[in-house]
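seq:
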Amino acid sequence: MRQLIYLFAVVIVFSACSNKVDSNKKMAGDFLDLALSANPLDAQVLTHPDFKFVFMGNTEISNIPYDRDAYFDYWLPEVVGKLLPTGITLTTTDMIADDDGVAVIMEGDAEGINGEYDNKYVFVYKFKDGKIFSIHEYNSDLLVATRLYKNKLVPID
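struct:
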C-alpha cells in the first residue's frame, strides 16, 4: 500500500511539473506573436508586474534593462519598430524548457531600415507567479551592428 501511495505522489508531482513546463512553453511561444502584432499591449497581460527585458550583446542598444512599461512603450515601438518598420517574421525552430524557464530558438526574416536583415535568436524566458518575469534576447549583434546600424568592420592592428 505504501508503494502505491508513493507511486501516486510521484505521478501527481510529475504531472504538475509537466503541466507547468507546457504552460510556460505556450506562454513563451505566444508572447512574441502578441508583442509583435498590431496590438502589442495584448502581450503585456502575460508579464509579471516586475518584468525585465534585456537585449544582450555589444551594440549601442545592448545590456540596458527595460521594465514592463519601458519595454512596451519604448523598446517595441521606438527601437524594434524603427529598425524593422515592416515588421519581422519569427519562426520557432526549438524550445528547451523546465519549470522555471524556457529558451525559444528562432529564425527571423525581415527588411530592416538598411535592407534585408535575417538573424537567428534565442529568447530566454524566466517565470514567476505564473507570468513572464524576464526575457533575455540573444542574437548576432554583429548583424545588428552592420545591417541595421551600418557600422563597418575595421581590422585592429
